What does this fold into?
Amino acid sequence: MNPIQGASPRTVEILGVRVHDVTYREALDIMESFIGDGEPRLVVTVNPELLMTAQSDQSFKEVLNQAALSLPDGMGLLWGSRFLGRPLRQRVAGVDTVQMLAALSARKGYRLFLLGAAPGVAKEAAKRLSARCPGLVVAGTYAGSPREDEEAEILARIGAARPDFLLVAYGAPRQEKWIHRNLESLRVPVAMAVGGSFDFISGRARRAPLWMQRAGLEWLHRLCREPWRWKRMLALPRFAGAVFIEGISSRFGRR
It folds into this structure.
């Protein structure tokens, strides 16, 4: 929707969705530059599940491709990009990015607003972020919902709070579509879709051990703790199959 100012990072297209090849440091610098010019921008965190949702939801795919910054969240994206011959350098996980944004905001005086998740979760996440990042200004927290009949009240709350970063946790694809639909009215420099980040930060959900994260096995850890998610986990083999087909097709197409 709004281009990245200055030197634009390289982009990688996976299954028709554009992802930026950025590191954590680069992502933070880019988002801080968004605050500098004040134009409202959408930031998304892309993982294999979102990519597969986008294959059957064209409007969602368009929202992802119009985002000002698309972070490569998920080891599956790194593996897929390598297979396609367009390797991404680093996984930039949403929950880690949120915590880094909180630390950056505490140092620079930026204001955060946490929107979404179950009632009380955003408030607890804000409390824990504030404890880890002394000086952090949390301009507001609110659960709300992505329903259109609640938009006026939510926009009023956010407008009164005047945040620099709006973190939205309604789950994909609702959160991305909600931000896209309201971006100009929000007038927030950075509106970022953060998925389940508040659940992890608040302690409601537990992240996989670091070795499982590095091995790309977070899905297995979550499946063991939340077996009812098994249908959603089917996106992973579907993603692998779709990337394989795309990679083989592109190789034969070049001959």
